[in-house]
Every structure is written in structure tokens, then in C-alpha cells.
């Protein structure tokens, strides 16, 4: 019967209209004046429920209890908040909900993170910037044992040493976060050489730069790019005017992948040249090299040799694209490439400057009285150093002589420039800092190593050196308390120092720390003690350190002990020990964000590729 309510065990069934008592009861609850009264009523109701029902109630009201403050704010304000977060925290925020995911993936946030580390997006070229060939030929021992690239020390007089998304679901986000925190790659193949090149009947493209010396040399072999790729090109069909929208999140993640590759020593080793291959390769010891990126974005490698030539290598095809020769009558000991010019220095006492665009010799300098061991230049000046104990400076590009810097007591083995400062390292164990504008000697670091200094790199305020004492040393020229050394002057065990031990007879960085506690840069222990010079820890070179490079995160060194070592720039802890690439002394190394290149007495050019399987075509490599 309509309008009649039948009560059955507390259940009231209605044909559509609630009872007057029910309405009155609900209205009474809503009419409570105090929120506290309502809260007390709700609490009593919940307390009257069996425990098994409380979880169900909690689940039903959970949505009313959550309030996304960040998500409710205007996007501009939310992004401003997110802009203070780290990369890992942003990835964690992307796991919260879709709104946070959209905010955490905003390109402006990742662009800020990238630019804080000077990581810029480069429009990919149609040719992958690094794809080295894999050539394997036997390499015997070098038939010459001398090294013209270093001068004598003032104390012993012997020529020792010339040294690489957007999240659709939670699982993908978790995987991405894990990858960002640590990409531990299993692709380690430190000695993986693979087979010969593939013959290809396709003629060379018209854009190839041809050999300009020697005259009458045979046509270049038509060898195609080899089978292995570090990664496939980003866009195989890119036109010359195609534009890719920068993905700064991808850029950041790629840099972090490469960083972790270095930390985990995950690389692929290949040889650009071995003895006698390719056919137009160097025919003798390779003393020097430099990576160079043309304005077009194509990266190449220049090498200088005892065969008196400089060769330009296409890293995509593995071919020699240019042979520069005919000017040096002795070994090419040092090269420098910058802004479309190449400078080469030789044992014939000459410095030759080449215009790469015009394919012609620009000028020859013949002012030094002995072998020119190192040459460097920038937009304003060219600096060279020699066995004749001097450093010479020239204005650039007109190459007018400026200063002859006399102060070293032995051969000046290495020189480095940064704006208006010049740093020189000598066999007399000292580093000297010069004012490039006036030629004035600003500071001398005497007895910087226990033996002659073989190599130097300079990025103010830090000076990095390698020595024939087998060690590296990095100092802050403004504050000697900031720096490190690989010297075995300290050890990292719990034993007390022997009572008759004296420290090394030169003021290492650790020695001037004025009472600060010493720390092992390998294990982090502060329980370190002096040890005799004859005791070597596991994290040192076993022979002269012939080449050093100072990077943003890492320091790389190459030694006569046939190894290349990677060090943490801040602490000096050894990160990687690269061996198996060379069979004779390493003379020069270079590295960028994706690879290390090395050359030496065995006529081999090795490429230690840390970017294998990673697309790096949008990275600025330098």
C-alpha cells in the first residue's frame, strides 16, 4: 500500500517517500550548530561499528581526506615549486599522480637542470657524430724506443719520457627512476676487437675532404662505415633543414647514463688504426692527437706522427680524410686545432699553422732553437714551448712574435693557456704561471713533483700535472689546500708509520693542508700515514705520466705503463683503469663526454667508447 511503511527487524521499506521520523533525524544532525558536535556524533557512530567494518568506511572516505595542494595551484606556481627539486626528486614526483607527472616532465625544469651543468642541446646532424670502425690487425713492438716529445730533466739529464620520455604508467616511471639513480651496464668489453671492414662499391661523396699530401698518392679506398654503431642515428631521413624540438629531460638522462658508464667502467674498445692499417694510416709512432668538432657538428680526430705528417680521421667511417704534410722535416710532436686552424710543432724546431678550410699552409714559425715540444693557441695568441728552455708567444691570427719567456732551468715539456694566463711545466720539476698580456712571471710552483713534469692541463684556478715521478697532481693555484695527488706519500691502512720514515722531499698538496686530516681518495678512510717513496698503493701509475686531461667531472691520464686511468676530479679517487689497448708506451690521450682516445708508440689509435648503445647525436661533446 502506497505511503505505508512496514517495519521488519529494523528494516524499513518505502515505496519512495521517507518517513517523517527519518527526515527529522537527518535534519537534526545537519542543524547541529557545532562542528565539534557533529564530529562527536560521527566518532560515536564509528565506535559502534564492528572492527571489520571500519576499514571499509575508511576506504570510502579516503578520497575526501586527500587534498593535492600542488595540483590545485596554477601551473606557473607549481612549476616554480618544482624548479627547486633535484632530478631524482622530480622522477619520484612523477609517480604521485597524472597531474604531478605532467608537472615533473615539464621541459623548463629539465632545461634548468641541464644548463646548470652547461649541457646544451645540439641539433642532430644526418651523420652520427661518433661511430668508430673496428679494425683488428696484429701490432708488434715498436722498433724505436725513444720519445722525442719530452725534454731532459735538470737533475738526471736523461730523456725519460717524452706521456650517453615521457612516463605512461607507474611501472615505467619506477624503471626510469632506477635508471637515473644508477645505470649499471653489463656491456663491458674491454678488449673486444672485431673483424675487417666491408668493401663497398659506392663512390665517395662530393663533400669528402681529400688528401692534399703526398702528391700522387693512390685514390682513397672505398671502405664503407663499419658494421658496429654506438647507436642508430636519431633520424635517418633528416633533411638539411629539419629541426628537432629539444628534449631536455632526455638530454639530462643521457648525460647521467654516460656519467655512470664512466663510473662503472662500461666501455667498448676499438682500434681506429693499427700498424699498417688502413693503408693510408701513419707509418710510425703517433705522438699526439686531438678531437675536433666542425661547425657543422661533425667530429673528427687529428693525429701527428713521427712520419712527419698530420692526419685527419673521419670517426664515422674510420677513414683518413686528409693528410697534411710536406712542411715538417722531423717528427710532429704536438698539435692544436681550434677555430678552423691547426698548429703543429715538431722536432725540426718549427711550428706550422694550417688553414683547414682553405686546405693550405698559413705560416711557419722557426724561432725556437731546439725541438718544439708543445703548441697551444686560442682566439688571441699562440704559445709554444721547447727543449731550449723557453716559452714563446705570438699574437693570433697574424702570428706576430710577442714574448720569449725565460725562467725554466730545463726543457719546457708542456704548456697550457686559458685566456690571459699561461701555465708551463718543465723538466726542472716546476710549474710557472705567466701573464699572457705582459709576459710577466706571476708565480712559480717549485718542486711541484719529485721529478720532471711531463704533461699539464690548466682550467683556472686548477692546474693538473703528470710527471716522470709516475704521479698526478691537481692544485688550486689560489688555494693550495684544495687539491690532491696520487703520490704514495700516504697510505690507507691501520698500521702506524715506521719511525724512520721521512716524507717525500717535495711539498705535496697533502703536506700543506696545515693540520687537516688526511684521507684516502679511494676508500674514504681518514686513517692514513706517511710511507716511503718506494711503497706504491693500488691507485697509481707504474711509469711516467705522459698525458693528462682535466674534465668537468673526471681527470684522465695516460702513462708509459700502457694504461689509461680515470680519476674523480674532486677527490682524486681512481674510477677506472683501462688496459689492453696498447702494446707499447702511450703518448697522448683525449676525451669528451662519450669516449677516450689514445695513441702511442705501437702506432695504434684506440677508442674507448662509453656511449655504445646510447644515442648521443644531440649532445655537445666538448
Q: How would you summarize this macromolecular structure in one to three sentences?
A:
This is A Receptor for Ubiquitination Targets. The protein is an alpha+beta fold. It contains ten helices and 32 strands.
Task: Jot down its keywords.
repeat; 32 strands; receptor; WD repeat; WD40_repeat_CS; 622 residues; Quinoprotein_ADH-like_sf; Monooxygenase; four-stranded antiparallel β-sheet
Overall, the morphology is: elongated
Tell me which CATH architecture of the domain at 70-105 applies here: Up-down Bundle
Which sequence of strands runs across the widest sheet? 3-32-31-30
Calculate Rg over CA atoms.
33 Å
Q: So what's the oligomer here?
A: single chain
- The helix count comes to 10
DSSP strand tally: 32
Helicity, as a percent range:
10-25%
For the sheet with most strands, the description reads:
4 strands, antiparallel
- Taking the alpha carbons of the first and last residues, their distance comes to 89 Å
Mean pLDDT: 77
Strand content: 25-35%
Structural class: alpha+beta
The CATH first-level class of the domain at 70-105 comes to Mainly Alpha
Outline the low-pLDDT stretches.
1-16, 127-144, 157-168, 182-240, 490-537
**CATH fold-level label of the domain at 70-105:** Monooxygenase
Region (Disordered): 132-164
Pfam family, one: WD40
Domain F-box: 67-113
Keywords: Receptor, Repeat, WD repeat
